[in-house]
Design a protein that fits this description.
heterodimer, A: 202 residues, alpha+beta, three-stranded antiparallel β-sheet, 5 helices, 8 strands, disordered C terminus, B: 273 residues
Chain lengths: 202, 273
């Protein structure tokens, strides 16, 4: 991530929302974001979501504050926009890192944060790491049950002339019997039939 | 896999579970009677022999050499996942692996580790991993009159509705004991069948002497919490995100520690009354 935002005094950055490698879902006035690169998921509250949506790479902080004022119907200080940008930046949701050129002392900022929290205007970005998976894989292998009927009289219930025609019936209750021609009978009994034939697998 | 194929198999079953075709083969036909009750709830016999995954269970037999007994083996695909003299342990491992596989790969469903009950046409989800008291709370909810859906997985469809995964509850009387299998009837309840929309998500874990005083989360924060309990969330990102946002859209999300399960259960049901 580049860091070019507030390099010169008196200039304002025009932050741009990151779009690549993200899966985004809107949920009423919140936005849920999944970062495919970092496997982190973020929830943007209404204020953070509005700021992020308006980060088009051409709007300055002052312009962003104006747009939010229009949409929320309440004045938004530039300090609040900076806070939102800072939080979005830390969550890697902006293309370029944004640093807050704070000129105010901590006590003043704390007072402002309390005020925004009280009116629900504070931008919040909640983040969580998505746990790994033990069973990750790209595809399910196709396999075939092989010749397990025990044809050639290995199993007493099996009555098959050769391995390739061996069929088994699954019956309700878990019992299994083998037969050469059990398809129709199985349907009548509410079960089904399957064939153990390794050679016919696709 | 060919080496395992050559071991010689006496019997087997194929079934469909949540859209997955799975096979199980055994070297002793009578072992199938023990296997069938362990299949995922709602598993149905398959017509085709072609399966997407196969389990192979091999009972150890007495060796020719005196005092030597071969171990029981479990293979999941070509990987050996169990090797034990204790058949019960092997079957537990088989069930756990089979259910995990189903949860991971079922098409068109998202599995979230959560207990679920139904109440007045809506579902209550209790997400959580192992040893957070999930099953205890679900059992208390069933005793209080809720309909049992699952004590392990919330099975969600693309509309965000939850489907039953009503295996018997695994109730652990003491932490060092093996869980006892318990049907909902034994708790005076019954299992649900219809998919339900989710009305309440309770993010909680048991802490002795705690009192259930939850705080409410926004739907977005709720979805974020659910993602951490979603099986294969990293792999099936789109389906997970889409499904979870629909699941929580109209739900109340509560988070907090709980004390005794009975009190929490009644508090949860009151919340939906």
């Amino acid at each position: 991530m580049k860091d070019v935002s507030t390099r010169a005094a008196g200039t304002q950055p025009a932050p741009k929302a990151r779009a690549d490698g993200l899966v985004v879902q809107e949920l009423m006035d919140e936005i849920l974001v999944y970062d495919l690169k970092r496997h982190r998921s973020h929830c943007l509250n209404r204020t953070a979501a509005l700021v992020w949506r308006h980060c088009d790479g051409s709007s300055s902080v002052t312009e962003l504050a104006g747009r939010l004022h229009e949409e929320l119907g309440t004045p938004i200080e530039e300090e609040a926009i900076w806070l939102a940008l800072n939080r979005l930046s830390r969550a890697h949701l902006l293309q370029e890192r944004v640093h807050h050129p704070s000129t105010r002392d901590r006590a003043t900022r704390r007072t402002m944060l309390r005020r925004w929290t009280a009116v629900g205007g504070m931008a919040l970005v909640s983040s969580i790491a998505v746990p790994g998976v033990a069973m990750a894989g790209s595809a399910i292998p196709i396999q075939c049950i092989q010749n397990c009927c025990g044809c050639k009289n290995k199993t007493p219930a099996c009555d098959c002339s050769n391995d390739n025609s061996c069929k088994c019936c699954f019956l309700p209750g878990g019992s299994t019997v083998c037969s050469n021609n059990c398809g129709d009978d199985c349907h009548n009994q509410g079960g089904t039939c399957f064939q153990f034939d390794n050679n016919t697998c696709p | 896999m060919q080496k395992i194929d050559r071991l010689g198999w006496a019997d087997g079953i194929c079934f469909v579970s949540y859209g997955l075709k799975i096979g199980v083969r055994v070297n002793e036909p009578e072992l199938l009677d023990r296997i069938v009750p362990l299949l995922p709830p709602g598993a149905k016999p398959a017509r085709s022999p072609v399966v997407q995954h196969i389990y192979s269970l091999r009972l150890g037999s007495a060796s020719r050499a005196a005092n030597v007994r071969r171990l029981n083996l479990l293979y999941s695909g070509s990987a050996r996942t169990g090797r034990t003299a204790n058949l019960e342990e092997l079957l537990e491992g088989f069930e756990r692996d089979l259910h995990s596989y189903t949860a991971a790969w079922a098409p068109n469903r998202v599995f979230v580790r959560a207990g679920v009950v139904g109440w007045q046409g809506h579902a209550i989800l209790v997400p959580g991993g192992d040893s957070v008291g999930k099953t205890t709370l679900i059992a208390a909810l069933v005793r209080a009159g809720a309909t049992y859906y699952s004590d392990e997985y919330a099975v969600l469809d693309r509309q965000g509705r939850v489907h039953p995964f009503a295996r018997p509850l695994r109730i652990r009387e003491a932490s060092h004991e093996r869980p006892r299998r318990c049907l909902p009837d034994e708790l005076g309840g019954r299992s649900g069948r219809k998919p339900l929309p989710v009305a309440l998500v309770a993010l909680t874990e048991y802490r002795p002497e705690s009192t259930w005083r939850p705080h409410q989360l926004s739907p977005g924060r709720g979805a974020l919490e659910l993602i951490t309990h979603t099986v294969m969330a990293r792999i099936r990102v789109d389906a997970t995100m889409e499904t979870l946002t629909r699941t929580v859209a109209d739900a109340v999300i509560l988070k907090g520690r709980r004390g005794e399960a009975e009190q929490t259960a009644y508090a949860l049901l009151d919340r939906l009354a």
